[in-house]
Fold:
Amino acid sequence: MGVQKETSMIKQKQMLAEHFMELATAKESGKKVVYTFVPGNLSELIYTFDMLPVYPEINSLQSGMRKKSGDYIRDAEDMGYSEDVCSYVKCDIGMMLQGNIGPTGQKLPDPDLLLLSYTGCFVFMKWFENLKQFYPNSEIAMLHIPYQEAGIIEPYAVQYIKDQLEREVIPKMEKLSGKTFNEAKLKRKLELSAQAEDLLIDVFDSARHRPSPIDAYFGGVYYIGPIFTAFRGSQDCVDYYQELKKEVDYRVRHKLGPVTPDGVLTQEKARLVVEGPPNWTHFRNFWKIFYDLGAVFVGSTYTRVGGVYDEGFRHSPDDPLGSLATYCLGCYTNRNLPQRIDLLESFITKYHADGLLVNSIKSCNSFSAGQLVMMRELEQKLGIPVGFIETDLVDPRYYSYSNIKNRLDSFFQMLEQRQSVRISDEILSDDVLA
Amino acid sequence: MKLYLGIDLGSTTSKAVIIDEHEQIIGRGITNTRSDYRVAADIARMEAEFNSRFTILHRKLKSETNGETNWTEFFSHLKDRFHFLQFRERFYKLVDAIKSNLSTVENPGDRSRMHPIIHNMPGKILSVIRDRFLSGEVSTTSDFFRDLFSSAYMQEIEHVNKDIYDQLVAIYDRAINPIENENITFDFGELLTEALDMMPEDFRLNHQRVERHLEFVAKESLEPTDYVGTGYGRQLLPFEEKHIKSEILCHAMGAHACFPNTRTVLDIGGQDTKAIQVDRHGFVTSFQMNDRCAAGCGRYLGYIADEMSISVSELGPLAMGAEYEANICSTCTVFAGAELREYLNLGEKKENILAGLHLAIVQRAFALLARSGGVYNEFTFTGGVARNSAVVKYVKQLVIQNYGEMKINCHTDSIFMGALGGALFSARRK
Structure:
């Protein structure tokens, strides 16, 4: 992407390059490799044992962005995976079949541990069962996270996860790494995580300003989120978010809109909250539809898949394993529908959104199930226009530009209609609207 | 007089509506959509203009004659004749094209056998179609030039030998597209004068009255103050961006203008089915459209009609004569065609099969309706498919079954709702 580079973006690029270089040389350096998932990831714990995390979903989305996912999916389907299987899984399998080359062109190391944190997506279990076939020598550890059926984090659930960490996950990590669990080291990392989490929320909350200095969806997954997933618990991660916050504060002071691939968005015409992951195969084309029309995303749930920090939760050195457990329980996909609706409602009101858009993902049940109910409830409760489009994560066959554009044209005109009524009732403040 | 124009360029039909400053419809025009979208839009607009001139004339005559003349009947006859004359113009062009295509037939023997057929056919066809127009059998909202000509032509050649039959079909196929995509301009005054001469004896007495207004009505400017284009092909209209509106908003606006208490609108068009929720202002709050598959839309009916070699307008009435609905479980248009053939082989009555197909379409539309949030308050059914009596019957049945008794609206202008919405948007633009 020919994007405008800010210091944080350059830093992000360096950090990722170093990370993938470390992965490529893991065998030589003797570092153990943990394949794990973004929601409910135990980065701090993995780094405590000086191991390196690999996130298959991120590999898949990167393959999608690099236009490789179509071939990978075809190979997986040739192997017998059906059309309806999650495209992240098929893309990952296809990538392995073609030599497991990562986004930087370097080969990814085989896993020493398949650490399955189960946070609401049942496909994760099957995914790792399949990876176990590819890597029969790798250890496997299952961390079962109970779904928040009742919409609250029950003490027994926290204890249940702590027990699994103590009895299953940590002993396996100790065995593999040859290192004893160092709680003090974990505590230091959790402290750094909490600092990064404060900064991350400051960045997300900057969307309260008009114009919003960030795009919390496309920008959210492209600039704001990636570092968080791979580096939580490191000083580098804190430094990155400090830099990013500085840039965002500057944008707020100068009333600048978010950075897009075609430069700064100069005229904010619509503020949206979005539910659901983006499409990765046509990421830029998809983003362009919005910024061309002056639409900016002020909130997104997808950027909360790796953890929800909006309601005050922070990793804490005071109860290291307990806070890891609470973190896992609070991930977006582990929340029940009323909780997801509440979170969306809080984004819509806090960030003064004009409408809600749902991007339903053809091959993702964990996200798509319940979206229509969520949409309807929010439409009725808040009286805002809601829009619905369908794409897929990384299967390029399910991205139909004309279908999406046609629906979005109607959605944007719905927003305009509303705004024309609302503007007469309300004088819009230039500054923070909260 | 301030006028506003809405054009709805659908995948199957193109519609135009002209409203006055009181938001009353004064003219409607419709034609089949063809490869040149602009021609379709121009014809729809021209038809709406002619229709508006008839409305203006009708209003004038009615206001000065105190009800001693049945003007509604008069205008019905007059319009039939007027439309026939329009048909005749394009007909001659098509016949010329077919005749000239005859020279492309390579085999001289075939050519000489086809020659008398081609040269005798026009007179016969024109006379048959003339009678249909003059007896009021032709519907201007569903019997378009192509349909009228092709059914008469096919009937004319159905008994010829197979070897030249295919060639006769081929020379027609080659001729129809360019002729259909040609824009023909008509002089309203001239056509009306000729149409008046063709009126039945009983109505001739009114000629003088009509002729008094003829010049004014034919020349009155119907240039719209503002206009909006909508529909599936809206981006192809030669309109500036500000004159283009989404069909979702236009259908909702049109339906809401006719039925202000409606909160849920179901529109089944040629290739889109739309379930739309509107608020009390007629503003859309959410909508769902069929994605990736157009089974359950108007084209499905078109496909079935082709499979059964009948016209689309015959489907509904036939299905209404069913004893029960044959179970059509396919969710795919093409496979539904396979089911249809299977049932026919098994000896099932075609009425029952058709009833099953109609019910299948409506069930698909209702799945979409459920996705959009179901039915609130008053329910309005719009779109071209709303002219099909069997579809309307099953829609009413399923609304009551799924959502309870409520007011169900289906306007006679249902096919014009998108164009009406467009016209209303242009009239209400600040």
Remarks:
- The interface with chain A takes residues 245-249, 277, 279, 281, 283-289, 291-292, 371, 373 of chain B (CB under 8 Å).
- Residues 71-102 of chain B form the longest helix (32 residues).
